[in-house]
Amino acid sequence: AQMGIAAITEISLGGLKIILPKELEERLAIEAQGSKFEVVFNLPTNNKPIRLSCESRNAVDSNDSFQIGATFVDADFQNYKSLQAYLIWQKIEG
Predict the structure, then answer these.
(1) Across 1-94, where does the E strand assignment appear?
(2) Those residues with Cβ within 8 angstroms of residue 69's Cβ, 6 or more apart along the chain or in another chain
(3) Which residues lie below 8 Å from residue 31, measured CB to CB, with a gap of 6+?
(4) With 0-12 CB in 10 A as exposed, 13-18 as middle and 19+ as buried, what is 39?
(5) One-character DSSP codes across 13-39
(6) Rounded to two decimals, what is the model's pTM?
(7) In tens digits, what is the pLDDT along the chain, a chain of 94 residues?
(8) β-strands 15-21, 7-11: how paired?
(9) Residue 86: in which H helix or E strand, if any?
(10) What is the number of other CB atoms lying within 10 angstroms of the CB of residue 32?
(11) How far apart are CA 49 and CA 62, in angstroms?
(12) Whether the Cβ atoms of residue 20 and residue 4 lie closer than 8 Å to each other
């Protein structure tokens, strides 16, 4: 499986938006609608990495990167709960 580092620009219970450099996208090829991929990230409130499966919904091509919007699929319950708790905490804090 190919791996790469992307920036998560938005995240919600429904899914996320990532920015992927063009050279990485050529290797990963996830911008096509329906492409399945996995994201692994850490939340500031939780030191255990969260791993969620995603499916590409849309991609916006900019000069040197792709902005990919994806929805979560078959989310692991525990990971999903951690994400939910974090998003609620963000709302209270923000």
Answers:
(1) 7-11, 15-21, 36-43, 46-61, 65-73
(2) 15, 16, 17, 56, 57, 58, 59
(3) 20, 25, 56, 59, 61, 66, 68
(4) middle
(5) SSEEEEEEEHHHHHHH---STT-EEEE
(6) 0.81
(7) 678 888 999 999 999 999 988 888 777 788 888 999 999 998 887 778 888 999 999 999 988 999 999 999 977 788 888 889 888 888 787 6
(8) antiparallel
(9) helix 77-93
(10) 9
(11) 29
(12) yes
Residue found by looking up tokens 């609608």 in the block: 33
Q: Name the amino acid, one letter, at 9.
A: T
Side chain identity at 25, as an amino acid letter? E
Which residue from 66, 43, 64, 46 is spatially nearest to 56, judged by alpha carbons? 66
